[in-house]
Amino acid sequence: MRTRGIGVGRRQFLGAASAGLAAGGVWSGLPARAAVSPNEKLAIAAVGTGGMAAADLKNLAGEEIVAICDVDEKTLATAATLYPSAERYHDFRLMLELESGRIDAVLVATPDHVHATATMMALKMGKHVYCEKPLTWSVQEARTVAAAAERGLVTQMGIGVHATDNYRRVVELVRGGAVGPIREVVVWCNKAWGGDGRVHQPVPPPATLHWDLWLGPAAARDYAAGAYHPGQWRRWWAFGGGTLGDMACHLVDLPFWALELTLPESIAAEGPPPDPETAPTELSVTYRFPARGQLPPVTLTWHDGTRAPKEVAGHPVPAMGVMFVGETGSLFADYGSWKLLPADKFAGFVAPPQSIPKSVGHWQEWIDACKTGGPTTCDFAYSSRLTETVLLGNVAYRSGRTISWDAATGKPVGCPEAEPFLSREYRSGWTL
Amino acid sequence: MGDGVSNTAAVLRRRSLLAAAVGLAAVSVRPGRAGAADPPVPAVVEEGFVPLFNGTDMTGWVGNVTGYVPEADGKLVCSPGRGQGNLYTAREYANFVLRFEFRLTPGANNGLGIRAPLEGDAAYVGMELQILDDGAEVYRTVQPWQRHGSIYHVVAAKPGHQRPVGEWNEQEVVADGRHVTVTLNGTVIVDADLDAVKDPAILSKHPGLQRTKGHIGFLGHGSPLAFRKIRIKELP
């Protein structure tokens, strides 16, 4: 503790670092780890180790997993058997503080409500970030994270389907004009991550769960068995975004990419009367996107739960998918297939030549880019706009208003009812 | 889906019980593996030693109990910004063998107080055994008695026995009457007879050298670093 008489005080460098963090500034005081060469392994710290985090870690396991963090001691213990040399933590803030000097990159794969606080801390430390979808819990967080990522850090949002050949072929078909100009897109999914109507009795959390850390920036509430953790938190506005928040980042990604959408100019939603606590089990959202250069305006509709259609544009459809409705036909797509409709009209159709390079894999793109500085396909510039768009569907639903959205400022026009649903106040000790 | 043109592309706290276990594990004799977290180990306590940190909460400690945070695997993490000041044992200790492990961050700076009162500057009114990232560029020009393990400003430690930053180090401190030794990663880096300190300037600045007992403490709140397996055996 004592460095008196040394000439360079501790405060001068570490003090600056912690002050910068506390003030929400850039973590500039700690010595940065030298850039990683392509032959070196990335040193990665993981925020979250179960669920999608487990899958992400598996795909990153060729690199060096130096630290892992989970609020659930059982989940952490399972991960520890797979990554025995990783230092273990329950609080990602402490992990990043202690590991900053020896990590290059951070995986964030927690419930949605923790994404932004963990991602921002990592970005401020100058770490590359891979974050699960949706990028953030709120619209305001999406904008803040995107701005913080603008300084040369390598970022990727976890929507692995983006890396498939199938999505590439669909984008080539759309851009090649297979169904003519497209003004309408329908996206649906019959999942129903809504409130289940059960009454939850507060009980003490399990001894192995750090409930306060699980809550993170969200307002304090009692634990209830089976209500939130693990795997039920999506039903609650405080932690997730229902089916839209879960699935739309995967599915709306396809028209976003193919039609070069950025942000909607208006958003309207329909569903049962909004519940203040839980997401609906069925929801429809209508997004209107402005023209982009030669591309006409687009109306994109989303339907989930029991509102998922059995038929779109006159064609029977499966439980989940995307329909591009063009002037000369329709193009159905899901994760692994596509079809031009009606079938007889497209008999003998010759697909355009492949023009979009094959992906090396969604995780590998990020790993490679961290080492070489190359691009990723779902960096936070792209994925924050996708996330903002998705989340605005819930904002429109919860506010009960059709929202005119000023994409330039990220503000609703003449719709104060929407404001409370765009951001949240964080609990003491948590910050962006 | 009808018979559309198709391309199915190939894709595709109650924590108490547990705490007790962790606390015991934290004083295992199993040596730390460099650069690695230890997998959970059976609760093996060295003969005569008791844990100072229970692995779960700050029972038994006073002072900056918010700036030192219990973490996974029995770690005690010093987190800047969560609290100010030093952390001390509630109890006083006179003669003892203290063993612990520590893990530094770049430029980390802390200190181990022994035979210290709760008030005043422990380096002078007690003794401070420096905890420092000796390899940091910013400390390149420090005095020998400022290096890690040194009895601050009194007895210089033998340098060069720290493991690289980010790896766990094992330290033993023996304070037995006027004899103080510090062993870092198996090498004795301080072997001091306090009665051999004769410099009147040092003696007048360091009344703490004459104390026979006091609190054990961690003297810092500005650098992130971690401790674990903090255990003590009192000597007669």
Notable traits:
heterodimer, A: 432 residues, alpha/beta, Rossmann fold, Dihydrodipicolinate Reductase, domain 2, nine-stranded mixed β-sheet, six-stranded parallel β-sheet, 17 strands, disordered N terminus, B: 236 residues, mainly beta, Jelly Rolls, eight-stranded antiparallel β-sheet, five-stranded antiparallel β-sheet, 14 strands, 8% helix, 35% strand, globular
The sequence of SSEs of chain A as H and E is HEHEHEHEHEHEHEHHHEEEEEEEEHHEE
Instruction: Give the CATH superfamily of the largest domain in chain A.
Output: Dihydrodipicolinate Reductase, domain 2
Counting DSSP E segments of at least 2 residues, the number of strands of chain A comes to: 17
Q: What characterizes the major β-sheet of chain B?
A: 8 strands, antiparallel
> What is the H/E order of chain B?
EHEEEEEEEHEEEEHEE
Largest sheet of chain A: 9 strands, mixed
Superfamily (CATH H level) name of chain B? Exo-inulinase, domain 1
How many domains make up the coordinates of chain A?
A: 2
Number of helices of chain A: 12
What is the fold's blueprint, element by element?
The complex is a heterodimer of chains A (432) and B (236).
Chain A: H1 10-22, E1 43-47, H2 52-60, E2 64-69, H3 73-82, E3 87-89, H4 92-99, E4 105-108, H5 112-124, E5 128-132, H6 139-148, E6 155-158, H7 165-175, E7 182-189, H8 211-215, H9 242-251, H10 253-258, E8 266-270, E9 283-289, E10 298-304, E11 311-312, E12 315-316, E13 320-326, E14 330-333, E15 338-341, H11 362-372, H12 380-399, E16 403-406, E17 411-413
Parallel strand pairs in A: 1-2, 1-4, 2-3, 4-5, 5-6, 7-10
Antiparallel strand pairs in A: 7-13, 8-9, 8-16, 9-10, 11-12, 13-14, 14-15, 16-17
Chain B: E1 5-7, H1 16-25, E2 50-51, E3 61-63, E4 68-71, E5 75-78, E6 87-93, E7 96-103, E8 109-116, H2 122-125, E9 127-132, E10 168-176, E11 179-184, E12 187-193, H3 200-205, E13 214-218, E14 225-234
Antiparallel strand pairs in B: 2-14, 3-6, 4-5, 5-14, 6-13, 7-10, 7-14, 8-9, 8-13, 10-11, 11-12
